[in-house]
Amino acid sequence: MPSPATSNEQRATKNRILSGVQPTGNLHLGNYLGAIRNWVAMQQEYECLFMLADLHAITVPQEPSALRTNVRETAAAYIACGIDPEKSAIFHQSAVSAHAELTWILSCHTPLGWLNRMTQFKEKAGKHREEAMLGLYSYPVLMAADILVYKATHVPVGEDQKQHLELARDIAGAFNRHYQTEFFPLPQPVILGQAARVMSLRDGTKKMSKSDESDYSRINLTDDADAIAKKIKKATSDSCATIGENIDARPEASNLLTLYATLKGITREQALAECGSANFSAFKQMLTDVAVAHLSPITHKMRELLQAPDYIDQVLVRGVARAQGIAGPVMKGVKETVGFL
Question: Is 284 marked active-site?
């Protein structure tokens, strides 16, 4: 049975969310629709912590000054998209040492076989697996520590992160069983909506990504109206007469329709009824109008915030303090459980 202190802590964290993105520059429409916009709504229901995952970012080489710039830019994007720093903690992961500290302890309770099953390492390392860094291989344990150090009970996940959340649950369970405790709650997924997986504007079978060589594959949150219009105009088309014709067999058209529906706040069925008879050219103009109307206020707010780096730094300082206030007692309990003096 859990101790009274553990039970009280679990009751106190009944509805706590932890999520974040890597601050590697060029946050795009996929980051917004697939994650950040959903976080904004979650602030009403959960206690929320939104990190800038800079420890994860260094699994690939980073230029130090660019990383610092990207941390501030990503924080500005969070705020511009509607994350309220008075309601939610916005913080850079590296400033809370408990993330790295808990990672080591959890690594000592994670069988190699579990990590060998992680598909993202295989995809990212590719044919050069022997040259890949340990951090790229073991970062799912850091992801588990990110969640468990706050005893987060819910984690927003897209399709490509489900495996990592399952690993976090497995590691939490292994720790609890080893020490015969119920110290860590098993985090539950919060499955995101219809635009959880936003695809490339150039290839509807690939996820929109800031690592794609072509800037025309994505709409960045810093793009102005002209850039958005140009990218949508150049988005891959096909020879079908209308946007709605055999839509489920046409990945590029299907992706654009989903973007239109999500930005407008309607279902795909409603979007089809509204513009399914339009040709590609006419539909792209409709999508451009909706995208510009939705994203321009975000872009404008981001630019304002980036002109006030001191304010962004103050937000991060407050966020770090709130995060440490939660993580500190959890780490104290972990150390007592493990047997550290």
Answer: no
